[in-house]
Amino acid sequence: MRIVNIHEAKTHLSRLVDEAIRGGEVIIARANQPLVKLVPVAEALPARRLGTAAGRMHIAEDFDAPLPDFDEYR
């Protein structure tokens, strides 16, 4: 974990960003009080498309039929 003050962060921002991207933890502080943590943005997941499972599933006609009483299973 690396702690830098705001002035140093402004001066060496691109170097600190590279360090965070490589997995390093960079904390930016003011007057030795930690303020923020510099971390890489998580990769966005691709947008989900509707209908990609069309024709791959089968739902029985009676899927919503009432279940038998519990006593029948004892």
Describe the structure.
There is one protein chain. By secondary structure, the chain is of the alpha+beta class. The chain has a domain at 1-39: YefM-like fold. Helices cover 20% and strands 20% of the residues. It contains two helices and three strands. It has helices at residues 6-11, 13-21; strands at residues 2-5, 26-30, 33-38. The chain has a three-stranded mixed β-sheet. A hairpin with a 2-residue loop joins strand 2 (26-30) and strand 3 (33-38). The longest helix is centred in the N-terminal third of the chain and has 9 residues, at 13-21. It is elongated, with a radius of gyration of 27 Å.
List the helices and strands and how they pair.
Elements lengths: L1 E4 H6 L1 H9 L4 E5 L2 E6 L36
Parallel strand pairs: 1-2
Antiparallel strand pairs: 2-3
Put the structure in a nutshell.
The chain has 74 residues and is an alpha+beta fold. It contains two helices and three strands, in the order βααββ.
Label the CATH architecture of the domain at 1-39.
3-Layer(aba) Sandwich
Shape: elongated
| CATH homology group of the domain at 1-39 | YefM-like domain
How many individual β-strands? Answer: 3
Structural class computed from helices and strand pairing: alpha+beta
Low-pLDDT segments: none
Distance N terminus to C terminus? 61 Å
Which sequence of strands runs across the widest sheet?
Answer: 1-2-3
Task: Describe the largest sheet.
Answer: 3 strands, mixed
Radius of gyration: 27 Å
Q: Count the DSSP helices.
A: 2
Roughly how much helix do the residues carry, as a percent range? 10-25%
Nearest-integer average pLDDT: 88
Can you write the helix and strand succession as a string? Answer: EHHEE
CATH class assignment of the domain at 1-39: Alpha Beta
Strand content: 15-25%
- CATH topology of the domain at 1-39: the name is YefM-like fold
